[in-house]
């Protein structure tokens, strides 16, 4: 009789910073009902993984599920997997943080479930060969990746696990069946799964097959609650398994205890196939999909698809500069935490049973904040919102800035400190200028337009330039033809569910030719309109955006001044010299930007100049524009004070932005009244619920029109302040 062992590994996770109502919905629709069904079927064994983000939420909101899972573990029905506590992409973080997060997760599992995990869930199954060493050294015996990882090195036998090594440290690796990922729970009938299992089973009792995937697809993904629970798919599936003698279930640790590895293997850098496709540039994704479609429909070439590989996870950091900014910020802060911890190791002592030096405790808090800032979801984008979700990016910055501020408080006894450093922050081969005082971080890129690309306000930890530029995505071509199917059995997986959450999304497909940061210098052609500018569809004069600026750092007793300058023709034989100087003082939440524009030609020039500021705030009714008091006193009013408003304010000497969610207020003042354009940045992105329009931030564009005589100059000062309001 044919036999096979079916292994199930279910991964459950919600990102750091996700809304509480999303956690609750996931709990009610997926996590709790899954466990209730499993309790009804004591013969079904499986491996479960809950990320630390989710475990923390369970402990606070629904500790009853911890008790239920602990009971299943005691019965030998379930084993729990360890992993990076806050679900980081392990190759993207330093080894010290890999080890620390896994140790924290393992210790948490021991404390709450009374068991020591042997295996580990690898976030997004992102594998790189060097992982074997830190994982093995921290006590992980095995992990699981997709079968595609194995196919790309020519391995066909997926009936067990293999063993790999790095510098002699070994690690067992299981292959996940992509076929089963698509069948469970999307097969129209449970019998389809059984038929497939029968097709791969044989007389050898030592053969297994593994389905490892997200627990959210059992109830939280669109329409799956009705399918999986109301219509009984999962209950029927477990019942069928229990009644089918030739199908056994087991935990992954049970299998490794009784079976030897199939051999030694060295896997390439890889993730699951869909993610590797998403990591490609948009035009490459389109070509990739065409090639795969042609190969799949032609029986002669169907076997070739297993040798076609998509992109590489790290290239999300190239595809999205905003993701790279977060990841490099994370590395920068991680180094600060590690260096401060090393310097503080010998400082712990007691007097009268009280800790005199609290630095070790503060280092622990900083490390915890850092690790939360390593949660993977906001660093990339695929079928789920990920990077496109501002609240997830905000959470990353909040935790990274909090970690950084904690170690700064250790390092600086005097609050009147002021620092500047020139380093290659974003690892592009060019140096950025980082200026910091107690309340602010200001990061400038001289080689890329002299822009301000990060502005951190530390008292209410946030990066107020946490924006996302509008980028062409491969799926944008599908928006006009989005499917309307409501039947989950008609689709292979979440990757095939296509819906639009709003009408006429194609009208919002505007693309930016530059990153949406601040201090972007524009010289405009005379016919540019606000509508054209907001769509990034206009004619510019000169070449200042993203171009190199010369820079000089001047250090005073209590101030730092960064001078940035560039010369270029705004018209034929019309050279303009632009200089902007940013002045930052100690302990001040305000900084000053001084512009000088010089006509370096022998003819008069009509100039239209503006400075673009992008603000990445939450939006909504609790965030709005307002006019400074002096403007209100003379009877001026805003046409529309919402952050998503498109408006033009004439003769404006200043504007404020109030964010009652963050508890901050931003004030911008101009020494010369300007014509102020303001408009929102909306992106069209993909999420598990469908294509949607998302608010990414708002643009403030003060602009001036003036005439410059030959070799004459024009000047303006802009003061920008950030302060707490709550």
What does this molecule look like?
- The protein is α+β, with helices and mostly antiparallel strands and 726 residues long.
- The protein has three domains: 266 residues, Alpha-Beta Barrel (7-stranded beta/alpha barrel); 141 residues, no CATH class; 220 residues, Beta-galactosidase, Chain A, domain 5 (Distorted Sandwich), CATH 2.70.98.10.
- Helix content is 29%, strand content 29%.
- Helix 15 runs antiparallel to helix 16.
- The longest helix is centred in the middle third of the chain and has 24 residues.
- The protein is elongated and about 95 Å long.
- The N and C termini lie far apart (71 Å).
- The relative contact order is 0.09.
- About 3% of the residues have low confidence.
């Amino acid at each position: 009789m044919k036999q096979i062992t079916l292994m199930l590994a279910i991964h459950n996770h919600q990102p750091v910073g996700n809304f509480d109502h999303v956690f609750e919905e996931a709990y009610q629709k997926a996590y709790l009902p899954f466990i209730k069904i499993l309790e009804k079927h004591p013969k079904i064994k499986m491996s479960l993984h809950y990320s630390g983000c989710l475990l923390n939420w369970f402990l606070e909101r629904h500790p009853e599920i911890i008790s239920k899972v602990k009971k299943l573990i005691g019965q030998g029905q379930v084993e729990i997997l360890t992993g990076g506590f806050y679900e980081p992409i392990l190759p993207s973080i330093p080894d010290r943080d890999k080890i620390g997060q896994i140790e924290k997760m393992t210790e948490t599992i021991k404390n709450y479930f009374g068991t020591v995990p042997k295996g580990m869930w690898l976030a997004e199954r992102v594998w790189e060969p060097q992982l074997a060493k830190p994982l093995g050294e921290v006590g992980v015996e095995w992990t699981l990746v997709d079968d595609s990882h194995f196919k790309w090195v020519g391995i066909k036998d997926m009936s067990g696990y293999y063993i790999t090594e790095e510098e002699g440290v070994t690690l067992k690796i299981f292959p996940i069946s992509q076929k089963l990922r698509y069948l469970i729970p999307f097969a129209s009938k449970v019998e389809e799964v059984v038929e497939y299992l029968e097709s791969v089973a044989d007389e050898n009792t030592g053969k297994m097959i593994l389905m490892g995937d997200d627990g959210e697809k059992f109830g939280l993904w669109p329409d799956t609650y009705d399918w999986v629970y109301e219509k009984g798919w999962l209950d029927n599936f477990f019942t069928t398994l229990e009644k089918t003698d030739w199908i056994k279930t087991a935990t992954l640790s049970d299998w490794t205890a009784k079976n030897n590895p199939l051999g030694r293997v060295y896997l390439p850098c890889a993730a699951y196939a869909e993610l590797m496709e998403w990591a490609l540039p948009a035009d490459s994704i389109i070509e990739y999909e065409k090639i795969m479609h042609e190969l799949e429909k032609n029986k002669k070439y169907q076997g070739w698809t297993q040798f076609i590989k998509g992109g590489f996870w790290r290239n999300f950091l190239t595809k999205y500069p905003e993701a790279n900014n977060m990841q490099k910020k994370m590395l920068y802060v991680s180094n600060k935490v590690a260096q401060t911890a090393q310097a503080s190791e010998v400082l712990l002592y007691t007097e009268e049973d009280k800790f005199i030096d609290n630095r070790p405790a503060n280092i622990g808090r900083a490390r915890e904040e850092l690790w939360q800032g390593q949660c993977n979801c906001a660093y990339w984008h695929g079928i789920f919102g990920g990077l496109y979700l501002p609240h997830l990016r905000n959470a990353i910055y909040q935790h990274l800035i909090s970690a950084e501020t904690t170690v700064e408080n250790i390092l600086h006894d005097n609050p009147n400190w002021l620092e500047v450093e020139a380093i290659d922050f974003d690892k592009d081969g060019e140096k950025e200028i980082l200026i910091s005082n107690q309340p602010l971080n200001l990061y400038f890129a001289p080689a890329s337009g002299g822009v301000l690309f990060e502005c951190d306000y530390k008292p209410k930890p946030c990066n107020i330039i946490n924006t996302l530029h509008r980028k062409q995505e491969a799926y944008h071509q599908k928006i006009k033809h989005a499917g309307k199917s409501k039947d989950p059995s008609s689709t292979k997986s979440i990757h095939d569910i296509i819906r639009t959450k709003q009408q006429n999304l194609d009208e919002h497909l505007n693309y930016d030719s530059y990153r949406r940061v601040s201090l972007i210098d524009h010289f405009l052609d005379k016919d540019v309109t606000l509508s054209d500018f907001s769509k990034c569809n206009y004619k510019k004069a000169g070449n200042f955006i993203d171009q190199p600026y010369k820079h000089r750092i001047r250090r005073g007793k209590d101030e730092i001044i960064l001078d940035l300058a560039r010369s270029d023709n705004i018209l034929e034989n019309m050279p303009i010299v632009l200089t902007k100087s940013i002045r930052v003082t100690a302990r001040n939440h305000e900084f000053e930007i001084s512009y000088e524009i010089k006509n370096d030609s022998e003819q008069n020039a009509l100039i239209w100049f503006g400075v673009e500021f992008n603000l990445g705030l939450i939006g909504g009714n609790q965030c709005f524009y307002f006019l400074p008091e002096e403007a209100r006193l003379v009877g001026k009013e805003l046409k529309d004070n919402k952050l998503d408003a498109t408006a033009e304010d004439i003769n404006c000497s200043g504007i404020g932005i109030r964010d009652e969610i963050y508890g901050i207020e931003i004030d911008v003042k101009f020494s010369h009244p300007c014509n102020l354009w303001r408009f929102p940045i909306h992106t069209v992105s993909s999420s598990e619920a469908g294509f949607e329009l998302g608010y990414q931030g708002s643009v403030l564009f003060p602009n001036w029109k003036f005439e410059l005589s030959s070799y004459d100059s024009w000047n303006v000062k802009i003061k920008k302040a950030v302060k707490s309001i709550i």
